[in-house]
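Worked problem 6 (solution included).
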Amino acid sequence: MKNVIVTGASCFIGKPLINELIEKGYFVYAILRKGSPVKFNSSHVKTIYLNLDEYKDLGKFIEKPCFAMFHLSWNGTRGDARNDEEKQKSNFVYSKDVLEVASEIGCQYFIGAGSQAEYGVLNKKIKETDTPNPNTAYGIYKLKFTDYALDNAERLKLKVIMPRFFSLFGENDYSNTLIESSIENMLYDRDCNYTLADQNWNYMYIKDAVKAMIYLMENDFDGVYNFGSKDTRQLKDFIYEIKEILQSKSNLNFGAIPYPITGKVSIDPDINKLLSTGFNRFTPFNVAIEYIVRLKKGKAYEKN
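Solution. The predicted structure is:
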């Protein structure tokens, strides 16, 4: 049984990633912030409670060697915190510590969690070879860490894999995302207000994303990969599809919300590099929505 580490174990990506790793026979060190209420009920998981500034001491809690480090921890990923220069810079500094620790405890692979924010606003199909131009502190320091990790991979004797996530969705996502809020409103036939939603968009199901992360590791790939699906279309088409699946009577008010001052942004990743590895697991959007709805209805039933 191979040992792996997952920082940020309680985040949207972390939980399904750990479940997939357990299913594949790995032993997981799940790193949670101090005070986290999250529990993992598995003999294949050991929970370690550390804050991000303590990750430099992580090696003291790990039985060596470890096969891989999945580094998902990053403070300030939403709202105004994305432009908090001090917070985002500290993420970069602490993530460099994590990279060093991964090498010290014998990891062969380091898998990060990059973001489309590293590219900035590119209203085109985005390739890994496009020149990044991030316009938020979050994007700037995510990019700085991607570059640092790749530049130091040889010195640290690590294979570095950096997924750039565009727009992930799935069970137990943040409640204010478009998909989560749309499902919640449409289940009760409430009116739904949107922008014109006429830009291109691309959604990748979270369980496909974690499978792709593990696939790249297990098949000895490295480098930067755009993580998206094969399904790019106008954002409003996804919204209409959710309404159809739920057979909702909600009124969809497109244009009720103005675009932000920064303008309309498209999400349109070129995923040919990911496809070229042989990975080809993409759950259809409607099927994934049905999974999410089934879980929501089950939780509602349990409350009653």
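Discussion: The helical segments are 14-23, 85-104, 137-156, 178-187, 206-218, 235-246, 272-276, 285-303.
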